[in-house]
Amino acid sequence: MSIAFYAPVLVAVVPLVYFILLPRILAVLPQKIQFIAKCVVVLIATLIMSVAGSLISIVCAILNKRYLINYIVSRLFGILASKPCGVTYKIVGEENLEKYPAIVVCNHQSSMDMMILGQVFPKYCVVMAKKELLYFPLLGLFMKLSNAIFIDRKNHKKAIESTTQAVADMKKHNSGIWIFPEGTRSRLDTADLLPFKKGAFHLAIQSQYPILPIISQGYTHIYDSSKRSFPGGELEIRVLEPIPTTGMTADDVNDLMEKTRNLMLKHLKEMDSYGKPEVSEKPSAKTTATSMDQDEGSVKKRKTLKE
Fold first, then answer.
1. Which of 7, 149, 223, 236 stands the most exposed, by the fewest C-beta atoms within 10 Å?
2. pLDDT tens digits, 133-190
3. Rounded to two decimals, what is the model's pTM?
4. d(CA 292, CA 260)
5. Cis peptide before 213 (omega within 30 of 0)
6. 287-300: b or e for each residue (b if 16 or more CB lie within 10 Å)?
7. Tens-digit pLDDT profile for residues 213-236
């Protein structure tokens, strides 16, 4: 039989296996095997989207829709990676994504943040990244075609030139920028944020665009590489009200940065206080023995009173 005969069958069967059967199999695996298997699934989704993302980038560039590339690719990756791994999302304030353009700032926990981008990445938004990513195979091509802004952290003069050009591009295309203001993955065990870098806030004031804070709940209950645990579950993401920058000057950068960080930290701690399941402590052997002794004493006392 020809390939044409099997093509419709594959188109129907592959999604069923990937999105329905695979999640059920992964859910019942032992913890460490489950962790490895789900990480492999995320890696496969990443490889698929690296190739597909480059093709989507080329098509969008030809159609003059380059500012939709990140939106399309991130959403597709979110579906491919999250569904099989049993990760679901509760998004609060999603309507604030329409209050745009803006400088979007989000906390940065680990490489799994790519799943979060897949849920809340706005349309007409580009990313700011370190220059080294430009030289990664496929990823560099994808980012270049999607109008990513590359910053040379080792060269202050070139970094300033890049941000000045970024402001001009935002104004021209009515677009925004997604930035992780912590500058690197935090990998913190507690609900906290690393100190913010000033770049995002300089950009917001230069462009007079608002800051749009997005804060993701800590997700060690869903994914924890240190414990080789990846059970999945629900993750809350909050899209906060934009913080206006109209009328601000360079003198206001520090105040704007602290205000944004304090607000994001407040919401992060709120989510951490109720978002993780409580673990009840098992009584120790000593406590159990003491309780039994007390019960026996009570029984003897009641017998004595009856006699």
1. 7
2. 777 877 777 888 888 888 877 777 777 777 788 888 888 888 899 999 998 777 777 7
3. 0.82
4. 55
5. no
6. eeeeeeeeeeeeee
7. 999 999 889 999 989 999 999 999
User: What angle (nearest 5°) sits at the alpha carbon of residue 243, between those of residues 73 and 166?
Assistant: 50
The rounded distance, in Å, linking the Cα atoms of 66 and 177 is: 14
pLDDT for 260 beyond 90: yes
Helix (H) or strand (E) holding 216: strand 211-216
Residue 279 has what DSSP assignment?
Answer: -
The β-bridge partners of 87 are 233
What CA–CA distances, in Å, run from 176 to 47, 101, 186, 242? Answer: 27, 5, 24, 13
Query: Any idea what DSSP says for residue 242?
Result: P
In DSSP terms, which residues pair with 150 in a beta bridge?
A: 129
For 124, left (φ over 0), alpha (ψ -120 to 50), or beta? left
Question: Distance (Å, rounded) from C-alpha 112 to C-alpha 128?
Answer: 18
Q: Residue 58 region, left (φ>0) first, then alpha (ψ -120 to 50), else beta?
A: alpha
Give CA separation, 71 vs 36, 37, 107, 126, 146, in Å: 28, 27, 19, 9, 10
Question: At residue 126, what are phi and psi to the nearest 5 degrees?
Answer: -115, 170
